[in-house]
Amino acid sequence: PTQSPTISAETRLFLIQELVKDVFNTTAWQNPDTPEAQALAWVALEDEHQVDVSDERDRLIQRYILGMIYFSTSGNEWTETFEFVSSDDECNWSGAVQCDADGKVTHIDLKDNGLTGSLPLVEISKLNHLESLVVGNNDLSGVIPTVIGEMTSLTKLDLAKCKLRGSLPDSLFT
């Protein structure tokens, strides 16, 4: 899907911010150096895939979250980039991302790939169809948020050998 060529970059950015402001921490967008602002700029201004703002809110959110993963974990230094933040459809990003027939992300596998920094687990928890998140054996830090327990589709979670603090919510085991 492509955006109408008549929409300006500023209008596209504004429309995307309006569409997703109730889902994400918008105060982080004010500082252009944050992963949130970098992911927003990529989706709104740099992404050549140009998901249609008018009718693909879920796809915009999905690409934003994947962009957050990339920018939060020094994606430009990963062992393998898997075409993250490329113009290709995210479901075609070289095997690290898998989707169902409706184009919803169901699997993310970035194990042992040189990720550093803080994994945006709060944002990842908004991928409602995610069944498998495999990011073990990376230099990831931060706190495991309780919201991860609300991921009802999640059946596989690999955070082994990461420096994450906290406990996994009991709801993940029921």
Please provide a written account of the structure.
It contains 4 helices and 7 strands, in the order H-H-H-E-E-E-H-E-E-E-E. It has 174 residues and is of the alpha/beta class. The strands form 2 sheets. The chain has a 4-stranded mixed sheet with strand order 1-2-4-6, with no helix packed on it. A 3-stranded parallel sheet has the order 3-5-7, with no helix packed on it. Strand 1 (97-99) and strand 2 (105-109) form a beta hairpin. Helix 1 (9-20) packs across helix 2 and helix 2 crosses helix 3. The longest helix is centred in the middle third of the chain and has 16 residues, at 57-72. It is globular. The relative contact order is 0.11. The mean pLDDT is 91.
